[in-house]
Write a structure and sequence with these properties.
The chain is α/β, with parallel strands linked by helices. The protein contains 15 helices and 12 strands. Bound molecules: 1,3-dihydroxyacetonephosphate and iron/sulfur cluster.
Length: about 325
């Protein structure tokens, strides 16, 4: 190694603190900044370990409103940071990886929403929370995977235009035959590629395992599942079960919370062979969290039309609480 290379390597080693040192600095900065750190289950396990609260998207959105802190740091993708900001417009909201975006959040066109509204008198536009703030302004109400069924049932309208996820929309449609659910052809690129063949292979290899799936999976995959739920519901189900083997059809980040909740229980969790990882959630590394707390970077701006984008989120909280 030439001298310049060695100096660069040494400088990089000094710049990257050890995990213990990083955790110490994060804790110290949280106190100094009056910051509370929230993380989604799909972020790296080391990031989840540094958070004050870890949860699914509904839990994080609801929780953020109850916190009494100056600054909320949201470890997740941009629609999550935007939702926290819309529900807490006066609060500083930071994202360690502000460029981390959910591709599904953009998979619907305004023209399509306008066409459906013009076609049906009695229609509610229901936006999965995995949408940009602009898309939320087109909607009557938001939902997450853990409250979608309850919220849709509470709506007075018979026609429901469910955007953007066709898989979650058709999962809900099968449970509300009294409604006419119109689907939009968006999907999560991570859940939508989990194939029936790989699920059947997993079941053949682990015949005693319970199969748990996130409703963003395709209908033929969901048909193989014993249980369908949000990330938090899947985690809770594994933790509460007497079983020891589980096939889990969602992003592998949920394994960290399952391990934390079931110490020494030797629960075996199998994921599809093409391990589902959300590349955007993976960007929220512990080093990015530290840097965000150090320089208070990644501030989420209040989106345009905050009232119109925030109203469907507030309506979701109200209907889900009934
Ligand atoms: P949850 O609402 O289950 O946390 O899911 C969020 C998500 O992005 C799933 O891909
Ligand atoms: Fe979006 Fe899919 Fe990642 Fe969830 S897992 S944040 S839906 S890309």
């Amino acid at each position: 190694m030439v001298a310049n290379d060695r100096a660069a390597t040494l400088a990089a080693q000094q710049a990257t603190p050890s995990p213990d040192e990083l955790a110490r600095r994060v804790e110290q900065l949280k106190r100094e900044r009056g910051a509370v750190v929230l993380a989604h289950y799909y972020t790296p396990a080391q990031t989840q370990a540094l958070a004050d609260y870890v949860g699914d998207s509904f839990y994080l959105a609801r929780l953020a409103k109850t916190l009494e802190c100056e600054t909320i740091v949201l470890c997740g993708v941009s629609f999550m940071g935007e939702s926290v900001k819309l529900l807490n417009p006066g609060r500083r909201v930071l994202m360690p990886a502000p460029e981390a975006d959910c591709p599904m959040a953009h998979m619907v066109e305004k023209a399509e929403v306008d066409r459906i509204r013009a076609t049906y008198d009695d229609v509610a536009v229901v936006a999965y929370v995995n949408t940009t703030a602009e898309v939320k302004t087109w909607a009557d109400v938001c939902v997450t995977s853990s409250n979608a069924l309850k919220v849709v049932r509470e709506l007075p309208q018979r026609n429901i235009f469910f955007i953007p996820d066709a898989n979650l929309g058709s999962f809900i449609a099968r449970q509300v035959p009294e409604k006419n659910v119109i689907l939009n052809m968006g999907c999560c690129p991570i859940h939508d590629v989990i194939s029936l063949d790989e699920v059947r292979d997993l079941k053949a290899a682990h015949p005693a395992a319970e199969v748990l799936a996130h409703p963003e999976c395709r209908p033929d995959v969901l048909a193989e599942a014993d249980y369908i739920g949000s990330t938090k519901e899947i985690i809770n189900r594994v933790a509460a079960s007497d079983g020891s083997e589980f096939i889990v059809l969602t992003v592998a980040g949920v394994a960290a919370e399952i391990e934390r909740l079931t110490p020494g229980q030797n629960k075996r969790v199998y994921f599809p062979a093409t391990t589902p990882i959300c590349p955007n959630m993976a960007k929220v590394k512990p080093e990015r969290l530290l840097a965000c707390l150090e320089d208070l970077s990644g501030e989420v701006a209040l989106p345009e039309c905050p009232e119109a984008a925030g109203a469907p989120l507030e309506r979701m909280l109200e209907l889900a609480a009934r």
